[in-house]
Write a structure and sequence with these properties.
Elements lengths: L22 H12 L6 E3 L5 E3 L2 E10 L9 E10 L8 E7 L8 H9 L3 E5 L16 H7 L27 H18 L3 E11 L1 H12 L6 E4 L12 H4 L3 H7 L11 E7 L7 H9 L3 E7 L11 H12 L18 E5 L9 E7 L5 E4 L2 E4 L4 E3 L3 E4 L2 E5 L6 E8 L2 E4 L3 E2 L1 H4 L3
Parallel strand pairs: 5-6, 5-7, 7-8, 8-9, 9-10
Antiparallel strand pairs: 1-3, 2-3, 3-4, 4-6, 11-17, 12-15, 12-18, 13-14, 16-17, 18-19, 18-20
Helix pairs in contact: 1-4, 4-5
């Protein structure tokens, strides 16, 4: 029988930070406190949704107040519970973190319920459904039209504000994004119908950035899948690089500084041509992961995309001994050169395919208003990578300044890192 209620806690105030300590130490202590709190889930049954896979419950997750305030704040959320879940048949769980201008997507929750997972997603902008059940996508639209909207959530632009000089840690939007998602993870693990050891996290776009930061403070997730957004944005070649130039900001929110703490599997996914997050940052995130897998795709348009098959396959691989994603067994890419062989984990008889893509010029981005655009395009080299048994034989075109290799098995794939030749980088 489907669970009747969501087990939750009570409102707990956030303690005042010890401002005698450096901001990064304050941050560590405050988030360590958040890990011990079971938050209050306030049901909103008028927004519940029935699906073929079980009920999606709507409600407010009570979170910490902003700044020095001890008053609880609220974030709307959808919590999907598969109909077959019970204390005797516990299911895996997923925390879903949306990106910029996103919302709590019921469709995203349902996609995981279809696969047998409990799933929870927060609206990090402080929005909620309209009275007629529709969901306001735009922040300003929601502010004008909601009959009820939570008071100041402390999320600002879903964490887009990052750090500000002189702003206390508890007054920063990203702090509340990370703290709220820690609380959401606590709520998921506390459910008697959820296996607390099998809860993963994925985020899309800025949600991928948030997930990358989150796992540096919260190591209880069984795995993580940041999509588009990643760590090492200090070295990103898009406009996000500018956001991390401030040393105080980087000390708090550059995910690469704490990535080594997460010793569980991570799948990094990005479009090789992405205009928001450059593939070199994704590659660095992979190379500095304790247990990382990389998926650079030639064409993965930037959007809130819920049906990326690699994400589901990775979850099944990690949590349920599912079929492993195809991967290269060697990743010392700086030593590869232009002619080499790579072993894969595919049996010799396995049907698979490989594709090599390259840039004929060094990767760079140009400004277009408030955004950036990649100035080059990747070319496919038909004979650049050939699969023979379980070995990929590679010949990188002489004109290539950078390249990566896709490894496909059926409908899922991973990739090699992005390799950039130093001789080309020196000309930038």
């Amino acid at each position: 029988m489907e669970p009747e209620n969501v087990k939750s806690g009570r409102d707990v105030p956030l303690p005042a930070p010890d401002e005698r300590k450096p901001a990064p130490e304050q941050l560590e202590e405050l988030l360590a406190y958040a890990k011990r709190v079971l938050p209050y889930f306030e049901p909103l049954p008028q927004y519940d949704l029935d699906t073929a896979y079980g009920k999606i419950r709507a409600g407010f997750l009570h979170i910490f107040g902003k700044g020095r305030s001890t008053m609880p704040q609220k974030l709307f959320c959808y919590f999907g519970i598969p109909g077959h879940a019970s204390e005797n048949s516990r299911v895996s769980g997923m925390l879903l973190i949306h990106g910029g201008a996103g919302q709590a997507y019921a469709q995203w929750v349902e996609a995981w319920m279809e696969r047998g997972y409990a799933a929870l997603t927060l609206d990090l902008y402080g929005n909620m459904p309209l009275e007629n059940g529709d969901y306001a996508y735009n922040f300003m639209e929601a502010e004008e039209e909601h009959a009820y909207r939570p008071t100041s959530t402390g999320m600002c632009n879903g964490g887009f504000d990052l750090a500000h000089p002189g702003e206390p840690v508890t007054g920063q939007g990203m702090f509340h994004v990370i703290a709220a998602n820690i609380l959401a993870g606590n709520l998921l693990r506390a459910q008697p119908f959820v296996d607390e050891s099998r809860v993963g996290v994925t985020g899309i776009s800025w949600g991928g950035v948030s997930a990358s930061i989150l796992i540096g403070f919260e190591q209880r997730f069984a795995f993580a899948v940041p999509v588009y957004g990643s760590a090492f944005l200090e070295q990103c070649r898009t406009y996000f690089h500018d956001w991390y130039r401030d040393a105080d900001c980087a000390a708090l929110w550059e995910a690469g500084k704490r990535l080594h703490k997460f010793r569980r599997p991570i799948l990094w996914i990005n479009d090789a041509n992405d205009d928001a997050f450059s593939a070199n940052s994704t590659t660095l995130s992979f190379l500095h992961s304790v247990h990382g897998t990389l998926c650079l795709k030639y064409d993965l348009p930037h959007t809130h995309k819920f049906d990326i098959e690699e994400v589901f396959a990775f979850a099944e691989q990690v949590l349920h001994d599912g079929t492993p994603l195809p991967v290269f067994e060697q990743t010392a890419c700086r030593e590869w050169g232009r002619a080499f062989s790579l072993k894969t984990n595919l049996p010799a008889s396995e049907d698979a395919r490989v594709r090599l893509y390259y840039l004929a010029q060094p990767m760079s981005y140009r400004r277009e208003g408030e955004v950036t655009k990649m100035e080059q395009q990747f070319y496919h080299a038909p004979d650049g990578a050939v699969l023979e048994g379980n070995v990929v034989k590679v010949r990188v075109p002489r004109e290539a300044c950078a390249y990566f290799i896709e490894l496909w098995k059926g409908d899922v794939m991973t990739s090699s890192p992005l390799v950039e030749f130093p001789s080309c980088l020196s000309t930038q």
